[in-house]
Every structure is written in C-alpha cells, then in structure tokens.
Amino acid sequence: MTTTHGTTPARGSAGRAWGRALLGGAVMACALGAGNALGEALARMLGADGYARQLLPAVLVSALAVPAVLGLRAVRSTRRLPLGLGPRSAAPLGFLRGMAVTASCAAAVLGAGTALGWVRWSGLDPADLATFLVSNALVAVLLEALPEEATLRGYAWVSLRDRLGGVVSALGTTAVFLLVPAASTVVQAGVSRLVGVAPVPMGLSPAGQDPIAYLVLLTVFGLTLVAARTAPGAAPLWTAIGTHVAFLSVNRVVFEGVQRDAGWSAKVAPAHAAVLELGYLAATALVFVMARLASSLVRARARRLRAGHPSAATAHSVGDWTRVGPLLVPAEREGRSSSDIERTRSSSGVEQLRAAGAGREWLSYDRGARVFRRSGV
Predict the structure, then answer these.
(1) Edge-to-edge strand order for the sheet containing 361-365?
(2) What's the pLDDT band for 320 if we cut at 50, 70, 90?
(3) Which residues lie below 8 Å from residue 85, measured CB to CB, with a gap of 6+?
(4) Which of 55, 61, 67, 223 is most open to solvent, judged by the fewest CB atoms within 10 Å of its CB?
(5) CA dist., res. 346 & res. 349, Å (int)
(6) Kind of pairing, strands 341-345 and 327-330?
C-alpha cells in the first residue's frame, strides 16, 4: 500500500525497518571513517597540502557513502516513500531554501544575543569571508551534508517511516545519527593502522568537547534536519542538505572564525554559545514544522472545496430528480413523457437513457434508483 507523510504507514516488520535504519548509519560511519583515513594517506602520497588536503577526504566520503546507499535503495523490493532527492531541477531551490531558513534564524538569534551583550564581533574582511564560505561549503557538502543526509535523513528515515509513525521515525533517525560519530572513529582508527596513518582518538565526542553538551547539540541538530527533510517541497532532502551546510558555516564563522581564518568571528561565553546554537536550531525547526502544517491545511482545504463543488460530469447527481414512468431523470426533463425517452438495457443490467433530441445520456442502475450522468457537457 502506497503511503504519504500524512497517512498511516503500511504494516510490516518493524524489526526489518530498524535493521535498515541501522544499516544506513553503518554505511555513513564506515564511509566517514574510511574516507578520512584513506584521504589522509592519499594526501600524503600526493604531497597535497592546504585546501586540497581537506578536499580529498571529503570527496572520498561522498564517493563511498552516496553510491552505497543508492544501491541499497535500488535493490530494496518494497519501496514506498521516495528518498527525497527529487528531480534535478528542484535540487537548487531546495538547497537554497534550507540555507535561507537556517541563516535567517541564525541571524535573528545571534542579533538578539548581540543586543543582550552576549556576542562581541571582530572586524569584517568581506573578501576573506566570501572565500571561506565558498571553500567551506564545498567541503561541508561532500564530507558531511550530502553523505549524512542521503544515508540518515534519506535511507534511514525512509526505512523507518515506511513502517512506523512520524515521531518514532524522527527519534529513531536521530538516535542512529548520534551513533555515527563514535562508530566512525572506530572505523577510522582501524583503517588508519592499515594504511600507515596516525589513528585518531576514539570516543563519543571530538577531543576537547564535553560529551554531554555535544550529544545534546547533536540531538537538537538531528531533529532540526528531520524537520527540514519533511518540509514541503519537491526535493526535501536537498532542503536538509542546505540546512546542514548553513549550520556548519554559521558555527565555523561565529565560533571558530579565528582558527579557520574566516574573515569574521565572534567572542561568546561557552554558556551563551550553547544557548544561541540551540536557540537558532529550534527556530529553524519551528519554521519547517509550521511550513509543513500550513501546507497540510491548504491541501485539506482544497480537498474540502473539491468535495463541496462536484464537477460538471456529476452535477445532476446532487440536483433534483423526478420520476418519468419507472425511471428517475433530472428535473429539467420532468415535462417529457416516458415515450420520449428511449430505453435500452445492456447485458450488465444498466439502462441507457437518451432523452429525445436532448443530446444527453444517463446511466440508470435498477438498484437504489441511482442515475449517473455520463455525457452531455
């Protein structure tokens, strides 16, 4: 049974759905860990440095994750919901929608933080900022946004939503998302030893970050990405990708601008930084949720209007009817005698009625005396 976001999912094995969701997370963890380790080894072999050293692992992660998940999707025999990539022509608009909503919410929340005295900005270098945003966006798309959205908010979420409700699917996808960083460090450590690269430390969070604060931020971020993935549009997965890139860009400029030579940065106390990050993510999620609710209301209103205004082909079925001999016909034919109406009975038990000279034809069913107009419009 075909399902949509607003209908009850088809029955099936919830265990298999969870297995596929975890498989999507495993694909991402393996691609991220292996891509980073192999990219470092390849950069060393080629003597690449600077931006090329960042770009090589990013290309490898996408090259490993995206074809793998598309292949898994292709061989699955019971596909119901689409992955969400949509037509190619809709991808740019979806991406820009995610970027615009997230950047606007971040600007509003950071502006409020600046007014409260929580944020102190450095001097702005427009050329350096523009260069950083473009170069960072390419790495962010290939290393994180595209592969993570395809495997998690794409394959994992769709696998769960095919069988489970919306809330469970969102929470389940986010839970898988939380497992990926730690699992990827295990994979990266193993592959690094195989290719002779220094292994990274394994753990739940990046080195130097509080694990609890990191997991809370990742949870809110994951739910925001699910909200973007389920927002209305022809390419919702690209909306999530745009949201992902915007989040990484904002955080790297605002909170890591000095270390990354971004051309702009801010000084924010750690406690205030956490509030601001969670605040603009929550605002972004709210915008997407409200957009989806508004779209659902518009569709429901359109369905009610269609139900209340039948088409011309069925207009007589809700009008006044009268009996002419043994038959029911529209009231406008009340003045005609039954002899003016030609009757033929088909083998299916349906009477075809044609009013003489009227050029109109009805179908009359004996049971229930229902008469349906078939032509004449």
Answers:
(1) 341-345, 350-355, 361-365, 371-375
(2) low
(3) 91, 150, 154, 235, 237, 238
(4) 67
(5) 6
(6) unpaired
Burial class from Cβ neighbours inside 10 Å (0-12, 13-18, 19+) for residue 229 reads buried
Backbone φ and ψ of 197, nearest 5°: -110, 145
Report H helices in the chain: 14-46, 51-75, 91-115, 126-140, 146-148, 157-161, 166-195, 211-229, 236-254, 270-308
With contact defined as beta carbons under 8 Å apart, do 236 and 84 qualify?
yes
The 10s digit of each residue's pLDDT in 87-124 is 999 999 999 999 999 999 999 999 999 999 999 999 99
Q: How confident is the model at residue 241 (pLDDT cuts 50, 70, 90)?
A: very high
Distance, in Å, from the CA atom of 41 to the CA atom of 24, rounded to the nearest integer, reads 26
Distance from C-alpha of 222 to C-alpha of 52, rounded to nearest angstrom: 29
Q: Which residue shows structure tokens 């380790």?
A: 37
Structure tokens, 151: 């495997």
**What whole-number percentage of the chain has pLDDT above 70?**
77
Give the residues across from 363 on adjacent strands.
Answer: 352, 372
pTM higher than 0.85: no
Instruction: Look up residue 243 and give its two tokens.
Output: 């949201």
> In this structure, are residues 313 and 320 in contact, taking their beta carbons and an 8 Å threshold?
no
CA distance 4 to 162: 9
Cα 98 from Cα 240, distance rounded (Å): 6
